[in-house]
Amino acid sequence: MKIQDLHSAFLANPSISTDTRKIKANDIFFALKGDNFNGNTYAQKALDSGASIVIIDEEEYLIDDRTILVEDVLTTLQQLANFHRKQSKAQVICLTGSNGKTTTKELINAVLSTTYKTIATKGNLNNHIGVPLTLLTIEPDTEIAIIEMGANHIKEIEFLCKIAEPDYGYITNFGKAHLEGFGGVEGVIKGKSELYEYLTSHNKNIFLNADDPIQKTKLSTYTKKLGFSSTDSKYYTIKLAEAQPFVHLLVEDIRMETNLIGAYNFSNCCGAIIIAKYFNVELNDTKKALEKYTPDNNRSQILNNRGHYIVLDAYNANPSSMSVALENFHSLNKQRKVIILGDMFELGESAKEEHQNISDLATGLNFEELILVGENFYLTDSIAIKLKNFEELKSHLTKNPLHPKSSILIKGSRGMALERVLDLI
């Protein structure tokens, strides 16, 4: 089947599924493969569950004319998404970066949706599967699509750009994330900059954090850019008023008081503000949208649990985000500060050094209690309480309850699932 024919079938029933447990009537099921599963084997189940068409790439699973055999299911999904994107009149904004992608994406969607019909990446479906699935949610009346792009190796952003073909792009920052796949910080910069390379080579528009010297230098001669800065008057001026604990900004003498904690969220807000400005969103609408947004899903959430003041930031972690989280928490006007940190993943050969650096930083900030959890933190040279895994943490907190009314920062990589600590304190 040609992509245009498959697209016609998709337009008749514009709903895609890759999981037979979630199929709705008339879905098109893509039988994707993974390390531990083969979607082809679920072809019959998909049809029985209500799928109208099943896309497979192994001939033995052909059932009837409702099963369509292609060379590769994933490639077909990506081609369909690109074809759909080309047919759409929606403008596509893509963003990537080491930290803050998902929060920034949510903020951009919040401000633009005050004025436009938008769609945006759900959660963090930002890879070679998630980006196509997001593009396929573009509807006929969609005006702007906000697409988050994640990457853990060189050429991944370049590949995603070929699928999404962005009209605009924004990079939140360059940090120490996925060092194992990128081969170091220089690899991170090179990999994330593939978005800028696509945009500049296609004469597209770029949104720029001019307070970031790397971004500013890379785009010094490119003219199709709109930037923000807190220090350089050549760019749109946005000032950080305070972050105690919530970020308050000053924009054209208007104060915006957000529900986001930490100075590290300042640039995330600025990215949304500059994009809203470009698309002529009224500043008061931007203010209302930013002030209404409340983070969830374990991202910089403020919680009160049994009298404790908790900053739950357990969705992900890398050396860059860990450092700013520690420094921000140290700056808060709170008493009895307790830190619970979990291992940072995907650091490769840098793991030992980076965990030691974070341990040293946390120790030097003189928190009342410092607990390090995970195999990498356990091997650090530290005076902190070091525990090999979550079970040891559970045992420790059971025997040694935290001081009443403590202020607690909980941060670690997703695989550590440190939000489970909430049940222990």
Task: Throw out a few tags for this protein.
alpha/beta; 3 domains; 16 helices; Mur_ligase_cen; 21 strands; Udp-n-acetylmuramoylalanyl-d-glutamate--2,6- Diaminopimelate Ligase, Chain: A, domain 1; 9-stranded mixed sheet; 35% helix; ligase; 6-stranded mixed sheet; 425 residues; ATP binding; UDP-N-acetylmuramoyl-tripeptide-D-alanyl-D-alanine ligase activity; single chain; cell shape
Polypeptide structure, described:
There is one protein chain. Helix 1 packs across helix 3, helix 4 packs parallel to helix 11 (266-278) and helix 4 packs across helix 12. The protein folds into three domains: 3-71, Udp-n-acetylmuramoylalanyl-d-glutamate--2,6- Diaminopimelate Ligase, Chain: A, domain 1 (3-Layer(aba) Sandwich); 88-292, Mur-like, catalytic domain (UDP-N-acetylmuramoyl-L-alanine:D-glutamate ligase), CATH 3.40.1190; 301-423, Alpha-Beta Complex (Protein-Tyrosine Phosphatase, Chain A), CATH 3.90.190. The protein is globular and about 65 Å long. The N and C termini lie far apart (57 Å). It is of the alpha/beta class and 425 residues long. The chain has helices spanning 3-12, 43-48, 73-87, 101-112, 130-135, 156-164, 179-182, 185-192, 194-201, 213-218, 266-278, 283-292, 319-331, 351-364, 375-378, 390-399; strands at residues 16-17, 28-30, 33-34, 37-38, 53-56, 67-69, 91-96, 118-120, 144-148, 168-171, 205-209, 225-229, 236-243, 246-251, 254-261, 301-305, 308-313, 337-342, 369-373, 385-387, 407-411. The model has no long low-confidence stretch (mean pLDDT 94). It is an enzyme of class 6 (ligase). ATP binds at residues 97-103. It catalyses: D-alanyl-D-alanine + UDP-N-acetyl-alpha-D-muramoyl-L-alanyl-gamma-D-glutamyl-meso-2,6-diaminopimelate + ATP = UDP-N-acetyl-alpha-D-muramoyl-L-alanyl-gamma-D-glutamyl-meso-2,6-diaminopimeloyl-D-alanyl-D-alanine + ADP + phosphate + H(+). Keywords: ATP-binding, Cell cycle, Cell division, Cell shape, Cell wall biogenesis/degradation, Cytoplasm, Ligase, Nucleotide-binding, Peptidoglycan synthesis.
